[in-house]
Here is the input.
Amino acid sequence: MVNLKINGMDVSVPEGSTILEAARKLQIDIPTLCYMKEINEIGACRICVVEVKGGRALATACVFPVSEGMEVFTNTERVRNARKTTLQMILSTHNRSCLSCVRSGNCELQTLCREYGIENERLYEGDKPEVIFDTSAPHMVRDNSKCILCRRCVAVCKQQQVGVIGANDRGFDTHIGCVYDETLDHVDCISCGQCIVNCPTGALREKDDTARVYEALADETKHVVVQTAPAVRAALGEEFGLAIGTNVEGKMTAALRRLGFDKVFDTDTAADFTIMEEANELVERIKTGGVLPLITSCSPGWIKYCEYHYPDMIPNLSSCKSPQQMFGALTKTWYAEQNGIDPQDIVVVSVMPCTAKKFEIGRADQSAAGVPDVDISITTRELARMIKRAHIKFTDLPDEEYDNPLGESTGASVIFGATGGVMEAALRTAVETITGETLEQVDFEAVRGTASVKVAEMDVGGMHVKVGVASGMTGAKELLERVKAGEQFTFIEIMGCPGGCVNGGGQPIQPAAVWQTTDVKAKRAHALYAEDAAKTIRKSHENPVVKKVYAEYLEAPGSHKAHQILHTSYVDRSGDVVM
Amino acid sequence: MKKRKSSLPFSGTPEQERALAAVIQQHKGEKGALMPVMQQAQEIYGYLPVEVQQMIARGLDIPVEEVYGVSTFYSQFALTPKGEYKISVCLGTACYVKGAQAVLDKISEKLGIGPDECTPDGKFSLEACRCIGACGLAPVMTINDEVYGRLVADDVEDILQKYI
Here is the structure.
C-alpha cells in the first residue's frame, strides 16, 4: 500500500493506483473529460489536473500514479485557473449551439463550464476548424463542430474491434474521422453506437426518427403499433431522474398509451418466439449433425461484424430473425389477419436500446408480409424525448399493462436484455425438448454476469453440451478464435455491446463520472433478472400466446410457414472491409 | 495543414509488395512497429497511398484508420507520389519576404496542381519547403538537384520549359 495525503487527508491505496482513484476513496471528486474508466485513460484533456507538492507542473490525476508521502491538492487557485483555461480553449473551437443541442443538460462539457464560471462567450470568437457533418449512416450523425477531441469514441470503437474512427491530420486541423475521411457508410462500422454513449458532448448522436413517429401517429388511416425491447424498461427511468436499475415497465406502457399508439405491445413476446425457433434450430442441428456451434442472431451489430470479419461463420448463425423483426413479422401477418387489417396500413414502431436496429429494419429479407417488418426504430433516448415533449409526468404515471395479445411474455424473454439472457432462455426450452422432462431449476447462473466471455459445460439428457456467451466484440473475437482453433462448442450467444442490450448504444447516457463508481450494466441487468424471478411463467414454450399462434397459425417451430415469417438470411460483407 | 491525398491510380509492383511484406514480417509483434514499417514502406513506394496503408494495416492487424491517422499527423509521410521532377519552392522567412508565394502560385497555375500534388502524367510534383539555407539567393526553388535563385514569377515559364 502507498500512503499519501490529498487536501490534507490521509489515504492508503494499492501501488499503481492513480491520484484520481485515491481521491475517490476519500470521496473527493476530481472532474474529468477525456477519461473513461477502462476505455480511455490517456490524460489528454487536462481537466483533471491537480497540484502535487514539489512538482513543477500540474499532474493529470487520471493517469498520474501515486507515490509514498505524496501530497496532492485538488482545489487550489492554480488548479481552478488551469481547468478554466483548458475549458476556454475547448470552447474557442466549439459549436456553442447549446440551446438546440440534443445533449443540453446532459453534456459533460456544459456541466464543467457552468461549474467553472465560463461566462464571456465573446472571448471565443475566431477561427474554427472545418465542420464535418456526416449523416451517411442509417443510425447516427457525426457532427465534428461539437467534438472536443477527447478520443473516447476512438478508444471504444477500437475496443469494439471496429476501429473505423480515429484522429486525422494535426494541430488546428485535427479531427476525428474515418480513413481517407470517408463517410461512415463507406467503412465497416457495425452501427453499435458505443461511440455515442461514450461521447461527452453532442458530437455523436443517434439519427432522430421521432418526426416519423409523430407523422404516423397523426395519420388516421394507420394502425400504429409499438413494441419495446426488454432492456428499455431497465434504463428509461434514468432519463426521468430515477435510480439506475429501476424497472419502469408499467410507467413506460402508460406513457406509450398516452402518446397515442393504437397498441402497446412487448418485444418480449416476440423473444419467446425467437427462443422457440432458435431452440428448435439447435435441437435439429444436434440431431441431424448440422453446423455447430449455433450462434445467436438477435444483435444486429454482432451480425454485421460477423458478415464483415467472419463470413466463414455465417453458416453457424441462427437463421432466426431478431425479436424486433419477428415482432414486426408476426404483427403484419398473424395479427393483421386476426384483426382484418391490411399490413400496408400497419405501422410498427420499435423502441430499442440499440442504434444498430435502425440499420436492421432496412436489411434485405426482412419483410414477411411484403412490406418491411418494422417501419421505424427509435432508441430509448428518443422515446424519453417524446415523453418529455408531450409533457407527460412520467414518474407520476400509474403502472399499466401491455395490450394483448402481443404483450404476454415470460421470464425467459425479459432477460434477453442482459448478456447471457438469450442463452439461458434457450436452455430452459432446449433442455426440456431434449430430455422430455420438466426443468425445475431454471436459473443458469454460469451464464450470468457482465464478464465479456463466459463458458459453461453441462450434461443434457446424457449429452455433453458446452456453451459460450460473449458480449462486446472483443469478447466475440476471443470466443470465435477459440472455435476456429478447434474448441468444441454447441451453442454460442453473442451480443454486440459490452454487457448486452442493457448497455446498448441507444440507452440513456450516463456521464463518465457515474461509470467510475457504478456498475451501470450490472444494475440494469439486475432489474431484468428480478422481473424474471417474479414471473410465474419463466419458459418461452409455456407462453400461452406462443402456444396459440403455433397451434392456429405457424404449425410448429421450424415449419415451412415459420421459416417464411420468422427466419432470414445473411450476406458476406468481407469485400466491404476497408482494412 | 491538411494533407492532400492522391487521386492518381496506384501502380505498385509485385517486387514492391514482396519487399513490404518482408518489412512487416520483420517488425510484426514489436511494440511501436507501425512507424518503422511506414517509413520503410515510403522508401519502397515513394509515398503511402491507401493501398499501401491497407497492406500495412492487414499485416500488423490494426485498423487502417490508425495507419491513416499517423500518416496525416507526421509531415514526413507523403500521401501523394513524387514526380519525375520534384519542384520545391522555399517558403522560409527570407524567400517568403522576397515574394516566394507568387512564384509558387505561378507554378501551381502553370502545372495545374497545388502543393503536395503530382501532375497526372507523373512528370512534376510540387511542394513548399522550409529554409534550404540559400537565403542569399532568395527567393529560391529546387527542381531535383538544380537550384534556381533570385526568382520572380515571370521566370517560371522559361524554367519549366526546360523540363517539358
Remarks:
- The mean pLDDT of chain B is 92.
- Strands of chain B lie at 85-90, 117-118, 124-129, 141-143, 146-148.
